[in-house]
Amino acid sequence: MGKTMAGKKVIITGVPGVGKTTVVNEALKNLKDEGIEYQSINFGSFMFDLAKSEGIVSDRDQMRSLDRTIQKRLQQHAAQAIAKVPGNVLIDTHASVKTPKGYLAGLPEWVLREIMPDIIVLVETDDDQILIRRLSDETRSRDKEGSKAIAEHQQFNRAIAASYAMLTGCTIKIVVNADFLLERGAEDLAAVLR
Ligand code: AP5
User: With a threshold of 0.85, does the pTM exceed it?
Assistant: First the structure.
């Protein structure tokens, strides 16, 4: 199991709809049976709760379109709050966020400095599978984009993850969450959390 006193800090990322929350839930269920506990934290929820309390959004999918300076302030607030959580922590967030003005780093220096992750996980799968998962999920207002744009976003996330490794010395793990192979993805994630 991870570090004894400070706990292990693992960040999990992936483009919207790749299924990171699904993989996290499955992996944590398996680990619980082995007596390994992680607190699972959604970075976007910390941002959303503040943005909602300030009356600037009513839906979490509106946050991507907020002014860049506002998104950065919300990020900083989330990072500072999450850094205080003790023990093993699994943080569900984004390597980059697609905004109307281009990609915004999900883990800029001021976020990484607070959290100092041990590992950053990139959850990936085929672009077409992500497209279909987004179209099937009626509970969210997903960006309407084709599989080429999804492929570009996944490529960009690998590139920016390399810079996060340079800044923090963390490792980068790619976990594939393919259709019908959720168990395999969850086991790959569990292996890095043990
Ligand atoms: P967040 O809540 O993380 O939104 P999201 O990216 O849309 O994440 P989801 O949880 O909806 O998608 P998921 O990939 O976890 O997929 P799921 O498991 O549901 O963030 C919200 C917002 O916060 C962001 O848009 C951004 O604005 C902001 N934010 C967050 N972090 C930020 C940061 N660091 N900086 C700036 N802003 C930030 O699965 C999707 C579907 O696929 C489901 O229907 C599921 O059943 C299906 N599925 C999953 N796995 C499989 C499988 N193996 N086979 C078949 N179907 C599958």
Answer: yes
